Amino acid sequence: MHILKKIAAVAAIAGPILVAIPATAEAASYNGACGSGYSVVDSLPLAEGTVFLTYNSSNGYNCVVTVRSNPSSYLKSMDAGIRLSGGTWIEDGGFYTTYAGPVRLHAPHSCIDWQGSIDGEVNYQYNSHCG
């Protein structure tokens, strides 16, 4: 029997074949955790969420929050951090269901480093947003 006929016969007996396609990372939405007056100026993707950098132009503060795409009652190791470039980190880290942070830094006319992590995956940006 020809090979294509054999495949067609097996498929007819087995029924439809499902192909699993891996899901792509889903970006989280900014949750307003930094408070009123803060606007998102940048973000960094993570497989399970997003790190947001926000800025309040009325007071000169930057704020970082790491948000999970799919919050649940299951705790995950998470972190949000910010510092003057090369300085000491201001961080909020622990086991959270929804988000880590907010962490704030007054840094007008200065470069900052900022980062976030979920479940061991870290994304960061150094020496950025100088102004």
Search tags:
131 residues, mainly beta, disordered N terminus
Describe this structure as you would to a colleague.
By secondary structure, the protein is mostly beta strands. The chain is 9% helix and 48% strand. The strands form two sheets. Strands 1-2-3-6 form a four-stranded antiparallel sheet, with no helix packed on it. Strands 5-4-7-8 form a four-stranded antiparallel sheet, with no helix packed on it.
Order of helices and strands: HEEEEEEEE
Helicity, in percent? under 10%
Structural class: mainly beta
Counted beta strands: 8
Unreliable segments of 5+ consecutive residues: 1-24
Rg over CA atoms: 22 Å
Alpha-carbon distance between the two ends: 74 Å
Q: Supply the number of helical segments.
A: 1
Shape: globular
Q: Major sheet: order of its strands?
A: 1-2-3-6
Q: pLDDT average, as an integer?
A: 85
Major sheet details: 4 strands, antiparallel
- DSSP strand (E) fraction? over 45%
Summarize the topology:
Elements: H1 3-14, E1 39-46, E2 49-56, E3 61-68, E4 76-84, E5 90-96, E6 99-106, E7 112-118, E8 121-128
Antiparallel strand pairs: 1-2, 2-3, 3-6, 4-5, 4-7, 7-8
Question: What is the compact description of this entry?
Answer:
The protein is mainly beta. It is built from one helix and eight strands, in the order αββββββββ.
